[in-house]
């Protein structure tokens, strides 16, 4: 159009940046200035994933300075000071509705009794039984139980030959052979099974005879350790002289 000899050219479309309260990502869209704000919201639904009825639009300048709220659904987009590279920020006002889907405590849960589930023919439990998987493999369970019992009996037999006060040699895979004295034999709170507490001749241990605040025997720090009975051999293992050779 012309006004006092000056021709003004107005682009019917505007290229804007889009952000939303649901994501940190930014995208770009082109809108006709002749669209109403309600039409803009409808087009934004598939872009930002927010229902048009729950949207609140804010307009920011190309320098990201707040300009105005696009609050009149019947107003034209072009009636606002929107230009290329401006940013429209979409705020989700459906937080109350979203909580219904994100807060699992609000979801009614389907529950079934163990007896009713047991009677179902097409269930995960039924499938595992048919295929004899996991705890439903009776043969494998029995074998593991036998192995566990055998290991326990082996530990008991080994402990029978280990007495407190005996000199011993300790051999653990991946560690140097150590000499020391047996200070404790029996069960412990830190792990199941039988354990032997040893006071080493050198500071090659982990503690002073106490573990997790419970004392099992007395020794200097770093001289105490616990090992399985199978790693301990009792016998005539005199304490060596560890003084440096002259």
Q: In total, how many beta strands?
A: 14
Identify the strand order in the major beta sheet. 4-3-7-5-6
What portion of residues belong to β-strands? 25-35%
Q: Which class of secondary structure composition applies to the elements?
A: alpha+beta
Percent helix: 10-25%
Low-confidence stretches: 5-9
Q: Could you tell me the radius of gyration in angstroms?
A: 38 Å
Largest β sheet strand count, sense and barrel closure: 5 strands, mixed
Taking the alpha carbons of the first and last residues, their distance comes to 108 Å
Give the averaged pLDDT, no decimals. 85
Shape: elongated
- Helix segment tally: 5
Compressed to H and E, one letter per element, the order equals: EEEEHEEEHHHHEEEEEEE
Provide a descriptive summary of the structure in words:
By secondary structure, the protein is α+β, with helices and mostly antiparallel strands. It contains five helices and 14 strands. The protein has helices at residues 37-48, 95-102, 114-119, 124-131, 138-160; strands at 2-3, 6-7, 13-20, 23-32, 55-60, 66-69, 87-92, 167-170, 178-187, 194-200, 210-211, 214-215, 224-227, 232-234. A hairpin with a 2-residue loop joins strand 11 (210-211) and strand 12. The chain is elongated and about 105 Å long. The model is unreliable at 5-9 (pLDDT under 50).
């Amino acid at each position: 159009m012309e006004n006092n000899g000056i021709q003004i050219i107005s682009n019917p479309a505007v290229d804007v940046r889009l952000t939303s309260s649901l994501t940190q990502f930014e995208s770009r869209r082109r809108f006709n200035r002749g669209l109403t704000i309600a039409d803009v919201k409808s087009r934004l639904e598939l872009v930002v994933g927010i229902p048009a009825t729950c949207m609140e639009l804010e307009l920011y300048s190309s320098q990201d300075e707040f300009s105005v709220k696009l609050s009149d659904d019947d107003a034209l987009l072009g009636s606002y000071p929107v230009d290329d590279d401006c940013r429209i920020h979409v705020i989700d006002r459906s937080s109350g509705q979203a909580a219904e889907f994100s807060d699992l405590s609000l979801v009614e849960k389907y529950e079934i009794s163990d007896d009713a589930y047991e009677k179902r023919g097409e269930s995960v439990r039924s499938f595992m039984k048919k295929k004899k998987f996991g705890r439903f493999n009776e043969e494998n369970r029995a074998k593991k139980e036998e192995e566990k019992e055998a290991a326990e009996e082996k530990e008991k037999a080994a402990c029978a030959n280990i007495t407190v006060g005996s000199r011993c040699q300790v051999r653990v895979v991946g560690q140097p052979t150590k000499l020391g004295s047996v200070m404790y034999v029996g069960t412990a709170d830190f792990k199941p099974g039988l354990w032997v507490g040893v006071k080493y001749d050198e500071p090659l241990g982990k503690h002073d005879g106490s573990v997790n605040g419970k004392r099992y025997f007395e020794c200097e720090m770093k001289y105490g350790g616990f090992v399985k009975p199978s790693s301990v051999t009792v016998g005539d293992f005199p304490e060596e002289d560890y003084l440096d050779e002259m």
